[in-house]
Amino acid sequence: MPIHPSRQRSTRGSGRPGVQQAEAALVEHYPRLVRLAYLVLPPSLGRHRRVLAAHAAVQRALPGRRTATAGPPKPLRTRVPAQGRSVPSPRNPAAAHGATSAYAWVRLRVLRTALAYERRPRWWPARIPAPASLRPALPFVRGLRLLPRAGGAEELALDRTLSTVSAAVRAAFTLRLLEELTDLEATVLLARAGASDAAGAVRAAGRLESADRPRTESLLRSAEFDPCTLQTRPSDLLRRRHRLRTVASTAALCVMAGGLVVLAAENGPGGPARAGSAAVDPAALLRTAATEWADTSRVDFTAWPARGDRTHDRDLLGRALHTWGHTPRSVHVSTSPGTLSVPPAQPPQLLYAGEVDGAAVVLFHDGGVRVVRYAEPLTGAGAAALDFARTDDADVTTGAAVVVSRRGDRARFLLAPWVSEMSTRDLLAPNAPGRSLKVGRDGVTAPVSRPSPGRSCGSWPVMQLRSSGRIADNHSFLLTDLGDLAPVHLTYTPLPGKGAPPRGPREATGRPALLSWARTACSLRALRGGGVRAVNNWAFARQPLPEGGAPADWVCTRADTWRGRGRILVQFLQPAASLTAPGAVVADRPDTALCSRFGQHVLAGTHWRAPSGRWYVLAAGSRAVNRIEVTGGVHGSAGGTTLAVRAPQDAQVELKARLRKGGALSAVR
After folding, report:
1. What confidence score (pLDDT) does residue 79 get?
2. Going by C-beta distance under 8 Å and a sequence separation of 6 or more, which residues neighbour residue 589?
3. Pairing of strands 332-335, 385-390
4. What is the DSSP annotation of 530-567?
5. Confidence of residue 468 (pLDDT cuts 50, 70, 90)
């Protein structure tokens, strides 16, 4: 009979449950505990290892003979009122319950194990990650990869946001939303689990929460974060057979030559830095059927067919794979930030092989994580090149194009098979119609102008594509080239409507979006080569200017990268005679969740000179702000989302805001 967590009591005076009580709690709440561990574990482990580690953390939480009789952990001095008598909510039976509850005790042990993955021993150098041998061991699964079911764009955005914070913050975020603990209860539990700054982690978790808390809870409960509902995929079968033969051969050599042979095998030219023979065999390349993209729910690079007039050229494919697996020093290698240039672990998927602009080009998709471009000159003695870019969890827009060739100020792209309409336009000419873009039968575009890499910004070319009506997402979207293999998806979030719910990002193809991007496009130069996935312009406030001036707009330009991190540029767009007058960047912050679904509150300020010559401090906040205060060189306050106060040009001020539902907000710089 299941034991309700709030009714579990230890039979021992020490407050530690017996083995049978702990086992009953673990079995009854196993999916909840595994989900908790999975969310706390570092995403850098990868989904397969993260699943195994989550199950291991829960299964090892069961007390053994020693742990069952050991003394209880030392309690904190902070007292949680009525902690032992708290009543779980009907919606979440495993919510905050007593310190003597068997479930609470098992949960504490799971948290300790999950948090340990981001710790290192005191004697280990701070700048060097702790090796896997110093972390808790994983269960062993052979021949299969275990992955949670993929979610949608919202689940992906949440996962990327959580990957940018520490394990303690992820734990606090999960405890508040899924375990329904109060801030004090979560702080005490994290401290007992070994978090170094439990209170700070809880505060940081509070800043991550969106205004729509029920929606965020439903995302955490989705299949994306459920390590108990899994899909299986085989590992590389050919490579595994090759490993078995290699092991047998190595064992025979070890018998004959002893430890010297082992040392030579590890450090010699055939060591672990090299790719397996199956991974670089052209015959083992994966190929997708030409029509699969129209008959699958996963519309990304895995649905691309192999195209080009040299897809069956074994010599070219062999050279490309051999160069990738055994990269000579003469090959020019480039990687986007956060992308590994290691050899393939299994046969990659072939996307393209053909001749473009005087070079033979091959494009691979490697394990759902990277796109790799190989290019060799058709004539002359030029060196080959390898380019690597992250493309994990791409979708119908971010997986719609890949750079095939760049020459001077122009580039050619290979388009996704679901792209049905193609044109180009200039963001700095918002009133000009798009121009038709020619595309070959192999999916390669005619040369497209690139944004100038220099300081001048006279134009900003983009591609406007439309997805086919044969898939659900039949819409137009914009892509721009910021120097990586994968172009960047541009979106727009309009000003909040009065009394309307918060608006989400939409495609930047309408007139308000094009007018916004006409004034902010040149700021994209600061993001070039940064591994950017998508950039959104969020118009978060409109402010009437002092002395009867026309209104100005406040825009937060947020860039999300493939590795999960985000950077924001807050721009002040004052009235201008030109549609393309650039805005003034008043704040620039890297590695932040601000201006995203999980950082919906923002406050910014700037100095502004009126036509009369007088100087003002201006400030604006997002829709949840109901009062702004300025202190320092000048003092003042205003209700609502905007503030304007007379101040000297060089006045040093500090801006604070209060939110409608409580809480304070500092200005971003």
Report:
1. 33
2. 567, 568, 668, 669
3. parallel
4. S-EEEEEEEEEEEEEPTTTPPEEEEEEEEEEETTS-EE
5. very high
Confidence bin at 567 (pLDDT 50/70/90): very high
Q: Is the dihedral angle over the CA atoms 206, 211, 217, 222 positive or is it negative?
A: negative
At 500-542, the pLDDT tens digits run 667 789 999 999 999 999 999 999 999 999 999 999 999 999 9
Closest listed residue to residue 637, CA positions, set 656, 622, 650, 616:
656
**Residue type, position 216, single letter:** T
Range 60-64 contact pairs with CB under 8 angstroms and sequence separation of 24 or more: 60/109, 60/113, 60/136, 61/22, 61/26, 61/33, 61/106, 61/109, 61/110, 61/113, 62/19, 62/22, 62/23, 62/26, 62/106, 63/16, 63/17, 63/19, 63/22, 63/109, 64/19
Tokens 């708290």 belong to residue: 86
How many CB atoms neighbour CB 356 within 10 A? 19
The 642-646 sheet, strands edge to edge: 603-609, 615-621, 642-646
What distance in Å separates the CA atoms of residue 96 and residue 86, rounded to the nearest whole number? 7
**10 Å Cβ neighbour count for 494?**
15
Distance CA 331, CA 323 (A): 8
**Whether pLDDT at 266 is above 50:** no
CA distance 405 to 132: 40
For residues 333 and 389, what is the distance between their CA atoms, to the nearest angstrom? Answer: 11
Evaluate if residue 233 carries a pLDDT over 70: no
Cα four-point dihedral sign 159, 161, 164, 165: negative
242 CA to centre of own chain: 35
Q: What is the crossing angle of helices 167-177 and 102-115, to 10°?
A: 150
Tell me, what DSSP letter sits at residue 255?
H
Higher pLDDT, 569 or 56: 569
Residue 242 tokens, joined:
């090759």
Task: Name the 3-class secondary structure at 315.
Answer: helix
Neighbours of 112 (CB within 10 A): 16
What is the helix (H) or strand (E) element at residue 219, kind and residue range?
helix 213-220
DSSP annotation of 365 reads E
Q: Which is it for strands 230-234 and 332-335: parallel, antiparallel or unpaired?
A: unpaired
HSE at residue 296, side-chain half, CA atoms within 13 A, is 18
Residue owning tokens 């953390």: 57
The Cα angle at residue 379 between residues 377 and 382, in degrees rounded to 5: 50
**The two structure tokens encoding residue 76:** 């904190």
Of 344, 343, 360, 364, give the one whose Cα is nearest residue 352: 364
Q: Which of 303, 323, 313, 448 is nearest to 383 (CA)?
A: 323
Q: d(Cα 463, Cα 661) in Å, to the nearest integer?
A: 42
CA dihedral over 346, 319, 448, 529, signed as positive or negative:
positive
- The CA-atom distances, in angstroms, between 538 and each of 400, 435, 541 are 23, 27, 9
Instruction: Say if residues 365 and 348 touch (Cβ distance below 8 Å).
Output: yes
Structure tokens at 8: 């579990």
pLDDT band at 237 (very low <50, low <70, confident <90, very high): very low
- Beta-carbon count within 10 A of 309 CB: 11
pTM of the model: 0.67
CB atoms inside a 10 Å sphere around CB 559: 24
Q: Tokens 């069952």, residue?
A: 68
Which region, left, alpha or beta, applies to residue 82 given φ > 0 means left and ψ of -120 to 50 means alpha? Answer: left
More confident residue, 593 or 498: 593
**What is the sign, positive or negative, of the torsion defined by CA atoms of 114, 118, 121, 122?**
negative
